[in-house]
Amino acid sequence: MLACNRLVNSIKHTRISYLTRNVTTSWSPVGAAFNARQQKRHDLFEKNVGLFGVPELCTQAGFEVVEDRAQKETEQLVHRVCSSPPGALTVETFDQLSDNLCKVADLADFVKVAHPDPAFREAAERTCINIGTVVEKLNTNVELCTSLKNLLYNKEVLAALDPETRRVAELFMFDFEISGIHLDEKKRRKAVSLNVNLLDLSNEFLMGSHLPNKIEKRALPEHIRHCFSVDGNCIQIGGLHADSPNDLVREAAYKIFLYPNPKLLHCLEELLAFRNELAKLVGYESFAHRALKGTMAKTPETVMKFLKLLTEKLSDRTTKDFQMMRNMKSKVNPRNAELMPWDHPYFSGAVRAERYNIEPSLYSPYLSLGACMEGLNALFSRLLGVSFQAEQPKGGEVWSEDIRKLAVVHEAEGLLGYIYCDFFHRPDKPHQDCHFTIRGGRLKENGEYQLPMVVLMLSLPHPSKNTPTLLTPGMMENLFHEMGHAMHSMLGRTRYQHVTGTRCSTDFAEVPSILMEYFATDYRVVNQFARHYQTGQPLPESMVSCLCESKRICGAADTQLQVFYAALDQVYHGKPQHQSSTEILQKVQEKFYGLPYVPNTAWQLRFSHLIGYGAKYYSYLMSRAVASMVWRQCFLKDPFDRAMGERYRREMLAHGGAKEPMLMVEGMLQRSPTIEDFVDALVSDLNPSLQP
């Protein structure tokens, strides 16, 4: 460990310089790793270590090998846990079982969407399906469940467990109960059948929610047809075209893209009905009650209280925001000044542009990717004692030549884990910014700690020979956001893999990432790294101030739109309404949004978050409220406060999902926040910025 730290310290003080237009721009090794174009390697004798250092994954055929090995180890672990007396070893073995399968499933889950080779993607897809089948069988294994029950129902044994071990045991039991294992044979078979059907319906809905709609060319005015994709005699519309300055284009896109598909409507309504049936079968009032167990909110009633109170507090501001948009629309189109749902994104942006005239291209020269990575490195170093070390991946370790690998090193604890940065655009790569856990951290049987391994995926332009990758302010914030997830994974030092890092309640998981957005827009932080890549000049403070203030313009209306989505999600997953999903949409839109429902549209069929975030879409708003409170109370005065950084790690990042989420929030804030506090935090974010 000491040798490792000495190596890192020597590297930290080495800088690399580039000459651009006679101006010397000096980058640290981390900055240089991201601002310079990656050199192709041609070492014919270099050993292929396999993807992520898994030697079997030199080829796609290796997925079968690692899958078979995981299944054999699973059988051994199941036998061990079922033949051992109840105690801490029971939970440890369950976690080994989880880790054994997750190490294969999580890796395959990433490869199936990100690997450029279709053969690798297909092999990973098969592995995901096969491991999923194993997990389903384990969740309905009565003998396995009984071994856990013998632990949880033995008061003497339970009392001897530490709180983390007890919580992990309860989480494993919750997984069993979701599968209906506590039911009689007939009901258990029904639960298994419902789970299988829900998997199929979820896949069908996800696929359908992204498919374009078609309409005959002659149905659209000729002068706007060129704005859409033409497919023979049809116009194909695959999105809302929300940024189009043409009112008619936005209206046409909205009405056609959201036109109801009867088959998909049936799919959604069947999916919601099956979710409700399954939740009731396993003992819950509704799917929402089941989904919210163990979250910060805990119950659907709390979520609806939060959303209703937020709507009340935002009401006057939302009305003013919509009026500003109407005024703007009446200037552009006096004959048709009524504000409609297809107008909201465009005119909120137009109002911002009129007030502040934010031009992203003016910011980009100051925000080279390397500079931003140096900024993150400096921030984490001062706040948490953590720094990045750029490493050269070994042969076959990564799936594309432009991947950067970072070792995350603590000044006293040494190596914490690895972040693989898949930042650059390539064909067939998903256009989404996200964080993937490849391997979770846990304390191994030999006393060593299994280091976490994650991938951050962005879709940025490549650097050229003379110009580094330049980020817009939005891209920079997304980078900080995703790095918040990564550091949660790196600094979560849980004993059990099942609750490592971001494996926590959904309404808490976004807190560390959203908190990073506050750092990304604080000038004291930005000033540490934002330098013009050619001249070395710092980004003017006035430009950062304008950017921050512009976000507050129409902020209430934008927040209210998210409240509407969250409320719709809650109603869909609450007690059955005995109405169609479109009728429910109309009612919820009328109550929670300020713009009218458009007849013959079904926006809910494009609400793909209903699958992964069923009954939990509110989580983003609640996480933002917590992040806002943490920022204001702990970091607004000094964003580099090391004592606060240590408290943040100790109280919030270190526990993953091993501690009740609200207890972590209370530990950080040193008080018990109420729903009213959450709402006030979100409303306060819309006020003019506070001076520290």
TrEMBL record:
The keyword Ribosomal protein does not apply. Its cofactor is Zn(2+). It is found in: Mitochondrion matrix. Residues 241-682 form the Peptidase M3A/M3B catalytic domain. Binds 1 zinc ion. GO terms for molecular function: metal ion binding; metalloendopeptidase activity. One of its GO terms (biological process) is protein processing involved in protein targeting to mitochondrion. InterPro entries: M3A_MIP, MetalloPept_cat_dom_sf, Neurolysin/TOP_dom2, Pept_M3A_M3B, Pept_M3A_M3B_dom. It comes from the Eukaryota. The keyword Magnesium applies. Pfam families: Peptidase_M3. Its EC number is 3.4.24.59. Monomer. Cleaves proteins, imported into the mitochondrion, to their mature size. This is Mitochondrial intermediate peptidase. It comes from Aldrovandia affinis.
